[in-house]
Design brief:
The protein is mainly β and 230 residues long. It has one helix at residues 3-10; strands at 34-36, 48-54, 60-71, 74-81, 86-90, 95-102, 107-118, 121-123, 127-138, 141-162, 165-182, 185-197, 201-209, 214-224, 227-229. The chain has one domain (19-229): YmcC-like fold.
Length: 230
């Protein structure tokens, strides 16, 4: 079992975006409106988020936007965790993930095209799809490949309270995603329900897999564009 497969058993791609008004936001939720995701994406260099994952042997983890890197011809932001691993995301044409780097740069997952996890403009009640091929290398050696696809449903707005604060009108997004591996031949399905707050980002996420695992990720604290939460 390679490191990518092991990683997918215990975690899920967390979208670094923010929508719908909360402890630091001012948006007014209206289910008939379209929402420009780029307006709700605080990709500020230096932004920092601390989450508690449950269950997990290392429950507290961080996400920090540390800089930028060119990939797929665009300047993507570098979202780094506390161990130095990072993901490359962009928001110029929807919320897109480009690359995952682990183990000090030794293990790399690269998508053949940017994966649009959420389109640039969304409306409540709509479903959007994404798909891409990926390759995975360990220490520069090809170790696996496959496809990554899914559906994103914009469910609506809800208020939610977490240790980082009380957030009103968080956008609730349900994502069904599938990783299909070529070696060994294997398919893993995830269902994520994510609440994201205006000008803040991910507040709470619940993840279920077809392997029987259920995990949650809760925002404990954050510093976003110089504003401290709570």
């Amino acid at each position: 079992m390679n490191a990518l497969f092991s990683m997918l058993l215990c975690c899920f791609l967390i979208l670094p975006i923010g929508c719908g008004g909360g402890g630091g936001g001012s948006g007014t939720a209206n289910n008939d409106d379209f929402y420009n995701v780029v307006d709700y994406s605080p990709f500020n260099i230096g932004d920092n988020y601390t989450y508690r994952k449950s269950p997990s042997p290392s429950p507290v983890h961080t996400k920090t936007i540390t800089g930028t890197e060119m990939v797929h011809g665009v300047e993507a932001v570098k979202v780094e965790d506390g161990s130095g691993d990072y993901e490359l995301w962009s928001n110029t044409d929807g919320i897109r993930i480009h690359k995952i780097v682990e183990n000090g740069g030794a293990d790399i997952t690269l998508f053949d095209t940017p994966v649009t996890m959420i389109p640039a403009q969304v409306t409540v009640g709509e479903t959007y799809t994404f798909d891409a091929n990926f390759t995975y290398e360990e220490n520069g050696v090809p170790a696996n490949s496959g496809t990554y696809s899914g559906e994103v449903y914009i469910e609506g707005f809800e208020d939610i309270t977490v240790p980082a604060g009380e957030f009103q009108d968080c956008l609730k997004v349900v994502t069904e995603q599938t990783w299909v591996f070529n070696s060994p031949s294997l398919s893993i399905n995830f269902t994520s329900t994510l609440w994201i707050a205006y000008d803040v980002g991910d507040v709470f996420e619940e993840i279920e897999s077809n392997l029987g695992t259920v995990t949650t990720d809760t925002l404990i604290s954050a510093v976003v564009d110089g504003v401290l939460y709570p």
